[in-house]
Amino acid sequence: MEFEINGQSYRCGKMDAFKQFHVSRRLAPVFGGLASSASKDNADFSQFLQPIAEAVAHMPDADCDYVLQACLGVTQRKQESGWANVYNGQTKALMFSDVDLAAMLQITAKVIQDNLGGFFQGAVAGLNPSTTA
After folding, report:
1. 60: which DSSP letter?
2. Which of 1, 4, 93, 130 is 20 to 30 A from 101 in CA distance terms?
3. Which residues are CB-contacts of 124 (< 8 A; sequence separation ≥ 6)?
4. What DSSP character marks residue 33?
5. Distances (CA, A) of 121 to 6, 48, 49, 50, 118
């Protein structure tokens, strides 16, 4: 999947199934908060975000790092000479100094959407009786 953030073109690759599993199990509490928010009738945006923010806030740093690094590790940025990796897994460093917190989180969200969107969408839909047949 290709996408643009802050005027830069990115593309994300696919994580292998094991990496998808480990990312999804770390994100399960976050999406549990999403499911509980989605089931409330007439919930406003702040009520929707609160359980998600609380789940992320309670994630251990190592789990947050794992998710970010796994997502950034399959992402490339378009350069004049071709595509370049956004993240170096060996040095655990971003390869572009202009990738700030906001860009990093947007990239991560795009990778999660592309790699795990179907899994979490199905899990959330399964929790909501109105979406099942």
Report:
1. -
2. 1
3. 31, 34, 35, 38
4. H
5. 27, 16, 17, 19, 5
**Whole-angstrom distance between the N-terminal and C-terminal Cα of the chain?**
30
pLDDT in tens, 22-59: 999 998 887 766 655 555 555 565 665 677 778 788 89
> Would you tell me how many other CB atoms lie within 10 Å of the CB of residue 40?
11
Q: Which residues contact 27 (CB under 8 A, 6 or more apart)?
A: 67, 112, 116, 120
How much is the pTM? 0.78
Q: Which residues of the chain fall below pLDDT 70? A: 32-49, 119-133
The pair of structure tokens assigned to 64 is 């947050």
